[in-house]
Design brief:
Oligomer: single chain
Helix content: 40-55%
Distance between the termini: 24 Å
Number of strands: 2
Number of domains: 1
Strand order of the largest sheet: 1-2
Number of helices: 4
Strand content: 5-15%
Radius of gyration: 15 Å
Length: 93
């Protein structure tokens, strides 16, 4: 299971060129906490894993204002994405 405390500690809010603020997590931390050693994950498995992470993260006590998670989930729904498989250079793919 992902270490949410480590993800939160590594995360920072940055402003992108359009002026929109986004949460940025360093790639090495993301891959260590979220990345799976078997890169044959299906889109459905990826969806379930990310949903489980969001559910766990949402249930961690913090000072998130009411409605924030609803807005965030709607944003994810409206801006769907996939994390593509890629060759990591281990010559085992």
């Amino acid at each position: 299971m992902a270490d949410l405390a480590r993800l939160r500690q590594a995360a920072k809010v940055v402003e992108v060129g359009s002026g929109q603020k986004v949460v940025q997590i360093p790639l090495d931390v993301w891959e260590e906490e979220i990345g799976l050693p078997n890169y044959t994950i299906t889109p459905q498995e990826q969806h379930r894993a990310l949903k489980a992470l969001l559910d766990e993260w949402e249930n961690q006590p913090d000072d998130t204002p009411p409605g924030w998670w609803d807005e965030f989930r709607q944003f994810l729904h409206d801006n769907r994405f996939e994390i593509p498989e890629r060759d990591l250079g281990f010559k085992d793919e």
